Amino acid sequence: MHRFPMAMLALVSMFALSSCAPFTAWFEHAANDPKLQLVGRMDHTNPEQPLWAFPGTAARFRCNCTGVDVAFEDLGSGGEEHTNWVNVIVDGKTEVKLELKPKATWLKGARGLPPGEHTIEIVKRTEAYAGVVRFFGVSVQGVLLDPPPRPERRLEIIGDSISCGYGNEASITTTNAYTEPNTGFHSKNEDISQAYGTFLGRRFNAEVMSTCISGTGIYRNNNGATEGTFPDRYGRTLPDNEDSQWDLSSFVPDIIIINLGNNDFNVVDPTDNLPTAPDAEPFKAAYAAFVRRLRGLYPAAHIICSIGPMLNDSYPKDRQHWTKMQEYVSTMVASLGDAGVHYFAYTPIQGDPYGEDWHPTANGHAAMAAEIGTFIEGLGW
């Protein structure tokens, strides 16, 4: 599917053997090769061509190699919002950022690597809103080795656009309050590898599953709908496909961080075009029901109900959204009477630079990870 016809490969090999410079052959490996360690929710209906939707979905492997290419098909509809991107991460460093194509395509990955052993990660940068991708496999200039051991610790991030890393590669300064960062979504500026969940995974050497869906809330979405909320979609492998169900027993987290509620407080009042807060009781009831559901699935997990950094009491004026959100969530947590369920509030974003649409930048995500990481250490993890 990739390199040369066999006859030409033989000619190239003979030429290489007769020359001074050594030639290292490329070898292709399908997506279901057991030496590829797959991470995250995937639809394995066709195991040789699994579908990825959530950001952070990845293939991880070790190789004695000097180059790696990847094969994907982007099933998104294209344009600035619906084009998917992946990172090629070599030994912990992002070497290449790849824009995927609408047809099955081999893409040039990381080339010219130092000879020797490397750990490679192919990571979907972009959230499900950008679209689903089909993964075909990798081509390695060298040989695959046994995969790295999976981390013993497991962390699940449950959230909305903040947790997806929405717009975190942008860095926008503002001179007129509440104008410049209203950019809209550009998929190329989103990188889950620079979101707080990934930073926490590195800090604690944990495998991370990022289950995040932009625009969703715990009780109502940012369009006001109380159906199709995050809890309604939580069990899905592909969040926009209700028939695609994930085996929730296949990844059992030690720590669950919930970062939802921002969109519940962002439903616009048509009379003044400003965000409104949800009614307290239905919000708290929906949140408590979701936490109880998670507790039933994961009896031993610590569940952290967090408030993200985008709310504050300055906007909209006199509506006290930050204060209300703290009251709603903290009293909900207390009402559960579960010592393994915790309340945590991030420090609100204090000013520019912002990511797209007022979201945290990559540096902002690093600060979030540092804050909640200290809290997690206090739980004895």
Automatic annotation (TrEMBL):
Where does the UniProt annotation place the signal sequence?
A: 1-21
Q: Which keywords are on file for this protein?
A: Signal
Every SGNH hydrolase-type esterase domain range? 158-367
Q: Does the keyword Signal apply?
A: yes
Q: What Gene3D superfamilies does this protein's entry cite? A: Galactose-binding domain-like, SGNH hydrolase
The residues covered by the Carbohydrate esterase 2 N-terminal domain are 39-148
Protein name, UniProt field: Acetylxylan esterase
